């Protein structure tokens, strides 16, 4: 089983760019980009909280399990 970031799907669904998300949640662009591309190895809690607030979703919606 593997945990995968669902950030790209959420962003595409809302038609927003990585840079727009990064600015809106006031978080480092590079970290958001890594999560978007499913390259982030560890997920900072504050990033998850900000993304959940931004997308109005729960943590379970930020990830998929394969």
UniProtKB/TrEMBL annotation:
Domain of life of the organism encoding this protein: Bacteria
Pfam family, one: HTH_26
Entry-linked SUPFAM superfamilies: lambda repressor-like DNA-binding domains
Domain annotation HTH cro/C1-type: ranges: 6-65
Name of the featured protein: Helix-turn-helix transcriptional regulator
Species name: Paenibacillus motobuensis
